[in-house]
Amino acid sequence: MAKVKKSEQNMTLLDHLIELRNRLLISFCAFVVLFCLCFIKFTNNNQNLADIVYIFLQAPLASQMLESGGRMIYTALHEGFFTQVKVAFFISLCISLPVFLIQIWSFVAPGLYKNEKKAFLPFLLATPILFLAGAAMVYYVVIPLAWDFFLSFQVTSVNGSLPIELEPRISEYLSLIMKLIFAFGLCFELPVILLLLVKAEILTSEDLASKRKYAILCSFIVAAILTPPDVISQILLALPIIALYEISIIFSKFLNKS
Question: What is the pTM of this model?
Fold first, then answer.
């Protein structure tokens, strides 16, 4: 039976629950404060943080549409407001996530031994880094290629025919780009999940290697579900998942030796 630290012995179940509640409350307060700050106007153009982030998110599309006089629209009176609310929620969630992870680690860490802390701390640090890597890839690589593909279906007026032009709604655009960012970010967490399973001795490197062909198949299925219906973005998500799976196999061999 594992030994329990003296400081942990002195704490009752109620004490642990109160501490967990307080730490979750800190995370929630951080989220609420950040959410409110997103609506404060602080620039010369009367923009708030939600406006700035939305402009940043639409930049890949704007760079391809501005030359042709493109624009974005909203068709419901409340759509513009709720789009800002969604952007503020997105910002607050991303920024407050490290606060939440720190609070959870601070709650769990006192009950761990030194070697256990060394074992699990790298996984905790890798989680936001891998998520940011996935988000950066979708923003700087996948989205420009996908937007170029979708914009290719615009048709100019020829021989008296009506032109076909894209006028994206702001809410639909935001929903799509947030879905892509979260999809890539979560898929990039694959090494953390697999290596934790290996560390817990639920899986081994041999198990991962033997299931490689199923992993490749699942990668393309997940990519087809999470990305827009074009081959380019699906391949650009499937290939990194496969590469991360192979990296997980390599690192799992070192975990087995340790």
Answer: 0.80
